[in-house]
Amino acid sequence: MKIYNKKVSWLLVILWMGVIFFFSAMPDTDSSQSSLAAVNIVLGILSALQITADIGLLHLMIRKIAHGTEYFILCTLCINAFRSSGFSLQLSLLYGFFLSIGYAATDEFHQLFVPGRTGTLTDVLIDSIGGGIGTLIYWTITKTRRK
């Protein structure tokens, strides 16, 4: 049973890395259209609440939140995969965090070759924050469940 869980856990990591790669491979125009759809949804909600917002700032915030969220998910999947592979909690947290951040760095490098996209250290930092939050939440939930 453990081998099955291990295989599924690593498969989820690889699939999520594929999702990230897919979004990163989108040219800037396609990527902007995707995030603008989310902006329009948020603007609709804010409008219903009679709150005005700067569209440019909202667009930037949604893109950066998406970055952090992608790596929050990747990091937690990585930690889980290491745990299912028999690593200690501490090593799983460490390896999962660094694997996700390593992937973030290679992903930003990959974007240098996508039309209209750029790779930035700022985005790697945002991805690292997402991974760090994922690590902290995974650790907190694990410690809470043990009590």
Describe the structure.
84% of the residues lie in helices and 0% in strands. With 147 residues, it is mostly helical. The longest helix is centred in the middle third of the chain and has 30 residues, at 55-84. 24% of the residues are buried.
How are helices and strands ordered from N to C? HHHHH
Content of β-strand: under 5%
Weakly predicted, low-confidence segments: none
Spatial separation of the terminal alpha carbons: 25 Å
Helix content: over 70%
Overall spatial form: globular
Q: Calculate the mean pLDDT score and round it.
A: 90
Structural class: mainly alpha
Major β-sheet profile: none
How many distinct beta strands? 0
Radius of gyration: 17 Å
Multimeric organization = single chain
How many helix segments?
Answer: 5
Short descriptors:
147 residues, mainly alpha
Topology:
Blueprint: H1 2-24, H2 28-48, H3 55-84, H4 89-111, H5 121-146
Helix pairs in contact: 1-3, 1-4, 2-3, 3-4, 3-5, 4-5
Structure described in brief:
The chain is mainly α and 147 residues long. The chain has helices at 2-24, 28-48, 55-84, 89-111, 121-146.
